[in-house]
Automatic annotation (TrEMBL):
PANTHER family: COENZYME PQQ SYNTHESIS PROTEIN B, HYDROLASE C777.06C-RELATED-RELATED. Belongs to the PqqB family. It comes from Methylotenera versatilis (strain 301). SUPFAM superfamilies: Metallo-hydrolase/oxidoreductase. One of its GO terms (biological process) is pyrroloquinoline quinone biosynthetic process. May be involved in the transport of PQQ or its precursor to the periplasm. Keywords: PQQ biosynthesis, Transport. InterPro entries: Metallo-B-lactamas (IPR001279), PQQ_synth_PqqB (IPR011842), RibonucZ/Hydroxyglut_hydro (IPR036866). This is Coenzyme PQQ synthesis protein B. Pathway: Cofactor biosynthesis; pyrroloquinoline quinone biosynthesis.
Length: 304
């Protein structure tokens, strides 16, 4: 299967429009070695023709423009995106649905009932799409049962409920239920290879670690290097953990978790603009390089 990273940044992207942290200032001025990043999204394809979009970021227009495979031009109005999977109801993962409103038929959208609840109430994007061609909602169960998508023959999907956080407009903010956040185990039955994708991971529960350990490739939460990174910079009064993100550098952080795994190729995604690993000359990036942990970039292609 083909995996294309559309956006490797966290909410706000890199640089963030109003941010003057060292990274954002540096990438704008060209004084640090770093690439700009759009907000978190990937696409997966069994055949290189039909693509399943994972999350729809506010930057989707640029992401589509930058990836010609998404516009096969078979009809006067066309797209190669055949279905959309949503892993949570956060702004950086769903706002792009509004940009996709001109679709010529209802969108096939796969998400849990918890996510659907937020997207029909607190942030009613699904209701708004109802004024255009609407959506066909396919419920993703949270019991780790395998599901398939008709336009991705040969690929098996498993939603892995995990602990992160529900969005600020959710009644379940700070008390998320299974289904508010999922990781996705994506297996190509033809090659036997699998990807585990979790752009938000707050707690590494045993069942999540099991999926990670057995995957051929992991694309996992790379939001922050340290839990207090945003509060230290005076950017937010919240710690990353309160937002549902596990840091990379602490004991029990993402790096120590990944270091204990043998099999998978390890790649960080959903990188916040404050994270020092964005600077390719930083000591933190050197530490990752030494550990064999990669940092996803916009346009990255993975074949499994
Ligand atoms: C998150 O990942 O925690 C959210 O996307 C943060 C945000 O952009 O509001
Ligand atoms: Mn996010
Ligand atoms: Zn910044």
């Amino acid at each position: 299967m083909h995996i294309h990273v559309l956006g490797s940044g966290a909410g706000g992207g890199f640089p963030q429009w109003n941010c003057n942290c060292e990274n954002c200032k540096g990438v704008r001025a060209g004084t640090i070695k770093a690439s700009t990043r759009t907000q978190s999204s990937i696409a997966v394809s069994a055949d290189g023709i039909n693509w399943i979009l994972f999350n729809a970021s506010p930057d989707i227009k640029k992401q589509l423009d930058d990836f010609p495979a998404f516009q096969p031009a078979r009809l006067v109005r066309d797209t190669a995106i055949s279905a959309i999977v949503i892993t949570d109801a956060q702004i950086d993962h769903v706002t792009g649905l509004l940009t996709l409103r001109e679709h010529n038929k209802p969108w096939e959208i796969y998400c849990t009932d918890a996510v659907k609840d937020d997207l029909t109430t607190g942030f009613p994007v699904f209701n708004i799409l109802g004024y255009f061609r609407g959506i066909n909602h396919h419920e993703i169960a949270t019991d780790q049962s395998i599901f398939t998508i008709p336009t991705a023959a040969g690929i098996e999907f498993t939603a892995v409920p995990l602990l992160s956080n529900a969005p600020p407009y959710s009644p379940r903010r700070d008390k998320p239920l299974p289904g508010d956040n999922i990781g996705m185990h994506i297996k190509d039955t033809r090659t036997g290879k699998s990807l585990f994708y979790a752009p938000g991971l707050g707690v590494a529960e045993p069942h999540v670690l099991e999926y990670m350990r057995n995957a051929d490739c992991i694309l996992v939460d790379g939001t922050v290097w340290t839990d207090d990174e945003m509060s230290k910079e005076g950017i937010s009064n919240k710690r990353a953990s309160e937002m549902g993100h596990l840091d990379q550098s602490s004991d029990g952080g993402i790096m120590s978790i990944l270091n204990a795994m043998e099999k998978p190729r390890k790649i960080l995604i959903h990188i916040n603009n404050t994270n020092p690993i964005l600077n390719e000359d930083s000591s933190q990036r050197a530490t990752l390089n030494k550990a064999g942990i990669e940092v996803a970039y916009d346009g990255m292609d993975i074949i499994l």
